[in-house]
Amino acid sequence: MWFIGWAIPFIIGLAIWAILLLVIPPSFLTRFIFGLVLALWLLLMLPIALWIPAFYSSIEYIIDIDSVKGKKGVFWRKSVTVPFTKITNIDITQGPLQRIFSIGTIHVQTAGAGGPQGTQSELRLLGIRNLDGIKDATMEKVRSYTVSRVEQLKENVAQESDSQILERMLKELTAIRRALENKQA
Q: Which residues, at least 6 apart from 110, have a Cβ–Cβ distance to it below 8 Å?
């Protein structure tokens, strides 16, 4: 799909240059300038054609026990980990070309990310097949992980006495106060 996105402007550009070279009067200077600009344009398009497979091979996604992880990048590597406890929503987008190839993008969103459908998503999984299956499996892990964590917290709280709970709350509030005082200082 990325090669098609590259090939369309490449072919259109070649066609425009061919037409211009046929239409413009055949002086040496005009043909030289157009030939030079064409060579520069080809030098720009060649690295993009080499970058596409390198970028594609750099993409890694992992749905782990407690998080979704993604890595990508040729020159600058970007690595993102989104814990299940932070995931609030998972969206799917598919453009017309993506639908032809039966692929799409999954947007993993957290409470801190916002905006219309994945524009500010925490992690974007590109070029994914079986979009609904991966989305449903991930959301099921999010739900089960969240439910098990809540049950564990309820169990821990049920085992504590009121005085232990209040003591733990006091320690936490004291730690917050110290952090705020240190930040102000």
A: 82, 86, 87, 88, 122
pLDDT for 104-147, tens place per residue?
A: 999 998 876 555 544 456 888 888 889 999 999 888 888 887 66
CA distance 149 to 84: 11
Q: How far is CA 49 from CA 6, 54, 98, 113, 176, in A?
A: 7, 9, 19, 33, 53
> SS3 of 110, please?
strand
State the DSSP code for 120: T
**Residues constituting the chain:** 185
- Going by their DSSP bridges, the two strands 67-72 and 60-63 should be labelled as antiparallel
Contact status, residue 71 vs residue 59, Cβ threshold 8 Å: yes
